C-alpha cells in the first residue's frame, strides 16, 4: 500500500504494470479533455 499523506491519497494496488498504466493514462487524458470542454461550455453559457 502506498500512502501520500500530504494529499491524503491511498493507493491499495501498488505499482501498475506498464501497459495497464499506459491504458489508464490514455483514458484519464480523454476524460480530462472532455471535462475541460464541458467547463468551457459552462463558462460560455
Strand content: 5-15%
Tally of helical segments = 1
What summary fits the major beta sheet? 2 strands, antiparallel
Summarize the amount of helix as a percent range: 55-70%
Distance between the termini: 43 Å
Radius of gyration, whole Å: 15 Å
Mean pLDDT: 78
Q: How many distinct beta strands?
A: 2
List low-pLDDT spans: none
Cross-sheet strand order for the largest sheet: 1-2
- The shape is rod-shaped
User: Helix and strand succession?
Assistant: EEH
Structural class, from helix and strand content?
Answer: alpha+beta
Task: Give an overview of the whole structure.
- Residues 1-10 have a biased composition (Polar residues).
- By secondary structure, this protein is an alpha+beta fold.
- The protein has a domain at 18-45.
- Helices cover 60% and strands 13% of the residues.
- It has a two-stranded antiparallel ribbon.
- Strand 1 and strand 2 form a beta hairpin.
- The protein starts with a strand and ends with a helix.
Amino acid at each position: 500500500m502506498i500512502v501520500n499523506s500530504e494529499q491524503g491519497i491511498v493507493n491499495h494496488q501498488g505499482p501498475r504494470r506498464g501497459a495497464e498504466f499506459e491504458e489508464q493514462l490514455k483514458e484519464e487524458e480523454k476524460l480530462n479533455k472532455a471535462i475541460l470542454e464541458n467547463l468551457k461550455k459552462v463558462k460560455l453559457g
